Amino acid sequence: MKRRDFIKAATLTAVTAGAVSCAGWNPFKKKPEDRSPKPYKPDGSARMRLSYEPYELQMAHTFTVAAGSRTTTPDVLVRIEYDGYTGYGEASMPPYLGHTVGETISYLSKVNLEQFADPFDIESIHDYLEGLSKGCEPAKAAVDIALHDLVGKLHGQPLWRIWGYNARKAPNTSYTIGIDKPEVVAEKTREALGRFKVLKVKVGLDSDKEMIETIRSVTDLPLVVDANRGWKDKFLAIEMIHWLKAHGVQMVEQPMASLQDNAWLKERSPLPIFADESVQHLSDIDQVCGAFHGINIKLMKCGGLYEARQMINYARARGMKVMIGCMVETSCAVTAAAQLSPVMDFADLDGNILITNDPFKGVTVDGGKLVLPDAPGLGLTEV
Ligand code: MG
Fold first, then answer.
1. CATH code of the region 161-382
2. pTM of the full predicted structure?
3. How far apart are CA 14 and CA 290, in angstroms?
4. Domain segments of the chain as ranges
5. DSSP 8-state assignment for residue 15
6. Which end of the chain is less crowded, N or C, counting CB atoms within 10 A of the terminal residue's CB?
7. How far is the CA of 332 from the centre of ligand 1 (A)?
8. Dihedral of the CA atoms 138, 144, 148, 150 (nearest 10)?
9. Rounded to the nearest whole angstrom, what is the distance from the C-alpha of residue 277 to the centroid of ligand 1?
10. How far is the CA of 167 from the centre of ligand 1 (A)?
């Protein structure tokens, strides 16, 4: 058969095959039995009402990172009520991020959700929130989380299911051990045994090796470390990363401040390095791509779940790894972040475990693994 005949014959076969496979297939011929409950459809008569109140988080232990120590974290709880449903959200403001309760309340006081007839129109609501003021990410995250919780409740499904994620794929979460005296570090490590499968160790000061050796005297659990930009010399940093690898560390978060230094480390590091302080938004990913292997996404940095999901997809497309982190927060924001955890390489979602006055119950940890609620929206219950 000549090439021209072959192509002609192939075209004919394809057309015939198409005709055969389509024959008799009519998607509307047989009406499938409708067993699903009536989907919620906004009829335009109900309106969203936003309310908020400051709520100071009390921390179980004094928390020390390279930037300083604290025993409380400022927070604002948010509610969106709509047609008998309530969505919950939260803004957490660890002082080193530079946001304040005053800024958050002032932003929230400007938000008028009553102008939107359709809570499902998250994109338009986000455009509006963005246009109200630059920055104010924790306040925007609070509205975004409450909106997603509400929409999940209107759908009658947990967010992870709506997004097509498999809750059983939720990873282990790390448990954070702050910088402290050896006896306190040893005690916190012992407390974590049996409850967690990965420990995250804050480093970045002179005591790094002592911290790791203390933990290693208690357990051989896998470790990840977070230097919070604390290492000032790239040569010492790379030496430290090799030492950490030899001590069972799997990943290093934000070793240094400058992108140049982190890019230098990325070329040489035997461990993946992740950006945290260097990446806040979707628009930051291009510039950190060459300097880190992965990014740490946090709702309070990017302004909520809407942008976080875009960041996951874009970072993946750029060949980067993704982890989900949190601030010291209640189970509201931590459970919101946990909805994304089934598609993450690492999860560091212990912010709710570090406080003593959590008003919500949501995601839990079982044998180190995150267990997502199987209830609509975030699936929170009040304590
Ligand atoms: Mg970090």
1. 3.20.20.120
2. 0.89
3. 46
4. 5-156, 161-382
5. H
6. N
7. 20
8. 100
9. 7
10. 24
Contact 331, 161 (CB under 8 A): no
List, in order, residues 6 or more apart from 57 with CB less than 8 Å away. 72, 73, 74, 75, 92, 328, 329, 330, 355, 357
Ordered alpha helix ranges (H), the chain: 3-22, 101-110, 122-132, 137-155, 159-162, 182-192, 208-216, 234-246, 259-268, 285-288, 299-302, 305-317, 331-338
Within 10 A of 204 (CB to CB), how many other CB atoms are there? 24
How many Å lie between the centroid of ligand 1 and the Cα of residue 342?
20
Query: How is 276-316 classified by DSSP, letter by letter?
Result: STT--SGGGHHHHTTT-SEEEE-HHHHTSHHHHHHHHHHHH
d(CA 253, ligand 1 centre) in Å: 6
Tens of pLDDT along 306-326? 999 999 999 999 999 999 999
Task: Classify residue 381 as exposed, middle or buried by CB count within 10 Å of its CB (0-12, 13-18, 19+).
Answer: exposed
CA of 199 from ligand 1 middle (Å) equals 13
179 CB-contact burial (10 Å; exposed 0-12 / middle 13-18 / buried 19+):
buried
Kindly state the average pLDDT of the residues 183-209.
93
Q: Tabulate helix, strand, coil % of the chain (nearest 5).
A: 40, 20, 40
The structure tokens 């010492």 sit at: 236
pLDDT tens-digit readout, 32-86: 565 666 778 888 889 999 999 999 999 988 877 666 788 999 999 999 999 999 9
Please report, as a single letter, which amino acid is at residue 20: V
How does DSSP assign 114-134, residue by residue? GG-S-TT-HHHHHHHHHHH-S
For range 104-131, the mean pLDDT: 97
Looking at the domain covering 5-156, what would its CATH class be? Answer: alpha beta
Q: How many CA atoms lie within 13 A of 381 on its CB side?
A: 8
